[in-house]
Design brief:
Blueprint (H helix, E strand, L loop, with lengths): L2 H6 L18 H9 L2 H16 L5 E5 L5 H9 L4 E6 L2 H10 L6 H4 L2 E5 L10 E6 L10 H13 L1 E13 L8 E5 L4 E9 L5 E9 L5 E11 L3 H10 L3 E10 L6 E7 L9 E8 L3
Helix pairs in contact: 3-4, 7-8
Bound molecules: S-adenosylmethionine (SAM).
The site of S-adenosylmethionine has 17 residues, from strand 2.
Length: 284
Amino acid sequence: MPTANTRRKTKKKPARSGWRTARTSDRHELYEGSVQEPSAEIAFIERAFRERNGRLPEVVREDFCGTGFASCEWVKHRAGNRAVGIDLCAKTMAWGRKRHWDKLSAEQRGRMKYVKGNVLSTRTEPADVLVALNFSYFIFKKRAELVKYFKAAFSNLKPGGVFVLDSYGGYESFSVTKEERDLDGFTYIWDTEKYNPVNGDVLNHIHFRFPDGTEIRKAFTYDWRLWTLAEIQEALEDAGFVRPAVYWEGTVKKTGEGNGIYRKKTVGEACAGWIAYLSAEKPR
Ligand SMILES: C[S@@+](CC[C@H](N)C(=O)[O-])C[C@H]1O[C@@H](n2cnc3c(N)ncnc32)[C@H](O)[C@@H]1O
């Protein structure tokens, strides 16, 4: 998504011979190929939980699951794993079910379910880890709404459970910018159309462009509040979580780019664009 995702999520891949066009492409497939990397997310989920509990988690709740890509990968990852994905959008989940869930074995399908619902009010089996990724909780623009969501996340975790989130920022994210990345036969464009410094509102779009010049404009639009890490950590504590932590990405010395390795830090670099993971714990 933003600059930071460029650093974390996708290595630049060589464009193939231009077989994609706007007409032949599917926006969900392009989205997944641009900004999702379940293997990295799964590695982080396991690490964040193990650091606090000394064992691996089994039950994951994926809030704002969209296509449920990460949840389907979670049940494939280990035999005992279970997942539930929550999203408001039935159409997106139906796409994911066809694309990912239908391809699981019958046994794996029994361990992953989609739930159409609002993350604020949908109760599920208490999870070891609850994830809210790709900044989806930025949909909550007021502090009271953010804390309400964090309280809901808290209530859907087991004691000792871990909440995993991500966040982005950096001085470029507070400006009107466009960032392009050439991926597998298409160009991904992250377009920050508006940022309002008075209230922190930010309006972002994802567009896709193809080698023949055709485009899918506004494939996805996000009307968000750009929360800072300090605000997020304070809101997590207000919701009852303890030990909120930020995992900051290391840097490749030669290029200054992110190296994909995240470590717990209390001091970050005031760079142009970054993304970070956060974790917080529900007390036992
Ligand atoms: C940015 S996408 C994230 C998709 C996926 N989690 C990812 O990592 O790429 C945000 C998703 O949140 C869903 N959504 C927005 N508000 C929601 C709410 N209150 N409850 C459940 N889902 C919500 C949207 O339907 C959309 O699929």
